[in-house]
Amino acid sequence: MSVLPLRDNWVHPEHGAPLRELATHAKVRLVVISEVDAYEEDYTHLSVLQGDAAPQEVFPLIATFLSGRPDGDAPALRTAKGAAP
């Protein structure tokens, strides 16, 4: 899984996105995390792990991916600011 925080100044999202093409035999899921997609903030390289809302917004995405469940069984993403996941 490649989590691409919009405001990551160490690995910009456009530089992380080619992972899908490079890892041809791996299951790759790209997730761009930003306020545009109804996340609490435009995450940075560190806030994706340490941000106030990261345990509710980011961690479930990673846990679902690591559990091997199909994307259809993933917890619902936020659909509007302030809505429960």
Protein architecture, described:
With 85 residues, this protein is of the alpha+beta class. It has one domain (2-73). Helix content is 29%, strand content 9%. It contains 5 helices and 2 strands. The chain has helices at 13-16, 19-22, 47-50, 54-57, 59-67, and strands spanning 2-5, 30-33. Strands 1-2 form a two-stranded parallel ribbon. The two termini are 20 Å apart. Mean pLDDT is 75; it is low at 72-81.
Low-confidence spans: pLDDT under 50, at least 5 residues?
72-81
Widest beta sheet: strand line-up:
1-2
- Which whole number gives the mean pLDDT? 75
Strand content: 5-15%
Percent helix, as a range, is 25-40%
What's the gyration radius in Å?
13 Å
Shape label = globular
Structural class: alpha+beta
The overall number of domains is 1
Q: Main β-sheet, in a few words?
A: 2 strands, parallel
